[in-house]
User: Fold these one by one.
Assistant:
Number 1:
Amino acid sequence: MANEQKVKANLGALFPIAVFLILYLGNGIYFEYINPLDGQMGFYVVSVVLAFSISLICAFFQNRKISFEDKIHLCAMGIGDDNIVTMLFIFILAGAFSGIASAAGGATSTANMLLSIIPTGFEVPGLFLIACLISMAMGTSVGSITVLVPIAVAIATNGLSLPLCVGAVVGGSMFGDNLSFISDTTIAATKTQGVAMKDKFRTNVKVALPAAIITFVILVVYSFMNKGELIGDFDYNILQALPYFLVLIMSVIGINVFIVLTIGIITFILVGIVTGSLVYATALSSIGTGISGMFETMIVTILVASVTALIKNNGGFEAILQLIRKKAKKRKGAMFGISVLTAFMDLATANNTVAIVVAAPIAKEIGDEYKIEARKVASLLDVSSCIMQGIIPYGAQLLVASSIAGIPSFNFIPYLIYPFVLCLFVIISIVFDRKKND
C-alpha cells in the first residue's frame, strides 16, 4: 500500500490547505467586511463543507503515483481513527442532548435559575467559571459546550452580548479540555511522550491557571463596565432545571461523557413529559432536530480526516517537520518550534487530539535533541493544540457553539479571551525559560 512507503517531504502537498483557507476564510472576510451582502452573513456565503470538499478534490488530484483506490483507502483509514469515530459519536449525543434540553425547557429554566443566584453583572464571569469546572470533569470541550451554550444563549437574551457569553463558555471549556486527566488531548500528549499525567498537569497548570485568572478578571471588569441594564427576575421550573444539575454532578464525579449525555437525554425526556413541556411525539422530533443540527459538523470532521490523511501521505506534514528542524537552533527555539508545529497541525486538521498525535513523534525527537523535559513537551503539545482549536472557526468547538447559538462561528473570535491570553502566557513561559542548555 502507498501509505506504507517512506514519506518524503513535499511542501506542495499542503496546497489543499491553502485552497481551503482561501475559499472559506478569504470569501468569509470579503463578504463579511469588504463587500457585505444584504440579509446574509458573510461566512455563510461559502459553506465550510463546500470549502473542505473542494480541498479534498485538490488533494485527490495530487500524487499521481498513487491509485484512486489507494487514496480512498487512505481516507478511510483517516476517518476510521479512534479519535475521529469517538468525536462523531459525541456529536450525535451532543445534538440529541441539545435538542431535547431546549424542547423540554431545561435551558431556559436553568439559565433563569442561575441568573437568580449569580449577582447582576457577574453572569459572564460565572459562565466562564462553570465551563472551567465542567470541562475539567467531563474531559471534553465539545461536551461542555453542548451542555452550557444553550444556557449562555438564554442568558444573552436578557440584555447581554451573545458572542461574549458563548466566548466565555468556549474559553472555559478549552481550559478544562487542556487540564483534565480524562481528556483525549491529555492522554495523547502524555502517552506519546512517556510522562505521567500528574507531571504534565503540574507543568501545564503553571501556564493555564494564570491565564484563566487573568481572563476571569477581564470578564469581571468588562461586566461591571457594561451592566447598565437591570436584568430583573425570571420564572423557572426547578424540575426542568434538575437534569442539567444532574449532568453537572456526574461530570464533576468524572463519569464518561457518553454516559453523562445519555442519562441527560433520558432525564430530560422524563422531566419534559412530567411537566407537560413535552409529549412523546415532540420528544422524538426534538431529538431528531438536535442531531440534524450536528450534521454539518460531522461532515466537516469526516472531510478533514480525509484531507489530512492524503496530505500526510503526500509528505506535507514531513515538509513542515523538516522546516521546524532547520529553524530550531536552540532550546527556546525548539520549544517555539514544537508549539508552532502543533498549532499548525491543528490548523490543518481542525482536531486537537489528531494534531497532537501527528506532531508528537517529531516533538519527542526535538525534545530529546534539545534536552527539553518530557513533561514540558507534553504540556506544549496539549496547550498549543487547545489554543488553536479554541480559535479556528471551523473547529468542532466553535462549529457546535455556532450551531446551538445560531450565529457564524467567526463572530465568536473577538470574544475568545482565554485562548488569546493563554497564548500570551505560553510565549512568556518559553521566553523566560530558566534552562540554558542550547
Number 2:
Amino acid sequence: MGIEDSNTTDDDSRRPLSVLRTRGRSSVVKLHDAWFIACAADELGTAPRAVIIQDVPLVLFRDADGRAATLLDRCPHRNVPLSGGTVCDDGTLQCPYHGWRFDGRGECRAVPSLVGPAASKARTAPSFPTLEQDGWIWVHTAPGTMPASRPHRFEKMGAPGYTTVCSTVEAEASLFSTLENALDVPHTAFLHRGLFRSESRGIPITARIKRTADRVEAEFIGEPRPTGLVAKILSPSGGIVQHWDRFILPSIAQVEYRIGDENHFLADTVATPVSDFVTRLHAVVSFRSRIPGPLLAPLVKPLALRVFEQDATILRRQTEVIRRFGGEQFASTEIDVLGRHVWRLLQAAARGASSVPDEEHETTLVL
C-alpha cells in the first residue's frame, strides 16, 4: 500500500495491542530502467571497485582506454566476486580464483590452461551500460545495450560565474523517504531550526504544484528570505525568495533559490538506492552570490553536512520504526506538498508505465 491510499480512519487507541502493526505496507520501489550514480569518477582508478545498486552487487573497472565498465560482481565460473580481482594491462578484469578474464562487455577473453576459444555465452558476465559524465560514473539498471536515455545533467556546473561543490553521503532510509525528505519544506522549521528556517513567522506562502510525465515541481510564491544561517550567508541583504523544489525521475531532488539578481543557488541531489533501506546521496551544489565563490565555497559544504546529519538521524529513526511495526503508515495534509506526487511517479516508473496524468494545483502554507 502506498502513500496515496494509506491514510486510515482506524482509531489506534481502541485497537488491541496485537493488531497495532501496519501489515507490511511499504514505499520501497525497484526501478528497472534508470540511470544511477555509482561513484565519483576520481574514485575509480586502476583497481576494480565494488558497488551495490538496488541490492545488486556490481563491479566497476576501467578498460585499456580508460573507459569505465560495469559487470555483475560474480564470476560465471564459480561465483567468486570479480571485485576481488585485478585489472590486467589489456584492460580485462581477471577473476582472483581461476584467472578468467573479462572485457568491458562481460565477454570472457581468456581462461588459463584452456585450449581453444574462451568466449561463449555461458561464460559471459552480465554487463551494464556505463557513462562517465560531469565527474560521475553512471550505471544503468538494465543490462545489455546502451539505452536511448541519458543521465541527468547538472545545468550550472562549469557555468560562468558559478562555483560548484560536490559531496556524497548515505542515509538509512528508502529511496522514497530520502527523496521526500530532501523536498519537504515543513520539517525545515523544526528539524533544521536556526540553520535553515525558524519556527513559523505566520507568513502565508502559495505553493503552485505542477506534475508532468517525468517530474513534479512546487513553486513557492511570496516567501521572504528564511531566517536561518544558510540563507543569511547566501543573501546577507535579505529580499523576496524565488524558490522551486523539483523531483525528476528517476531519483533527482532539485532545490533552487533566487534572491534578487545576484544570488542563485541550485542543488541537485541524485539518490542511488543501495538497498531497500539504504540510499546514497550524491549532491552537486552550484551557486552564484554577491560573496565571491572562493570565499563562500568553504562554508557551503560544512553547513550542508550539518543539515544532512540532522536529516540522517531522523531518517534512521524513521526506518527503525518502520521495521519495528512491520511497515509504514501515512497521515498527510495539503502542506505535504510533493510526497504523493513523488510516490506516484516512482510507482509508475517501477511498473514501466510511460507516464502519469499531468496535474496542476495550488495550496497555502504558513511559514
Number 3:
Amino acid sequence: MKMKKILTAIFVIVLIISNAYFIYESQKSDYEIWIGVPVKGEDDSAAVDYQKSKPIKEKEDRNTVLFSLLQARSIEKPEITEQLADAVITISDPQANISYAQISLWVDESSIIAETGDEELPDYKEITDNSYADELRNIIEKQTSP
C-alpha cells in the first residue's frame, strides 16, 4: 500500500514537471525579430548593424511589430525613401537559418514608412497616427538606442 502511494506521488510529480515543460515550450516563439540600424559602407553599399540590438523578447512587443505592419496601408514610393532608412526589421528563424522578411523603416513625427518586398519589386506601406505607430516608434527607439 505504501509503495502504491509512492508510485502515485512520483507519477503526479512527473506529470506536473512535464506539463510545466510543455507550457514553457509552447510559449517560446519559433521566430525572432531584430531591429538594426542601416549603415553605408565605403563603396556606398548598404548594410545593417545589429551589434547594439537584441532579439525582441517580449511577446507584446513582437505582436506590436507584426500587427503594425499588417495594419499599414499601401502607398506610392515616398520621397523620404531616397534617404538612408532609420531602422531595419528582420524577421527570421535562426535555428532553421531562414530569413522571412527584411523591412526598412523611415520614421517621422506623423508616420512610419515601411519598405517591404525586394529591390526589384519594392512595396511601400504607411503606418499612420494610430496606437501601433506610437508603440512601434517606441520599440524602434528602445532597440536602436545605445
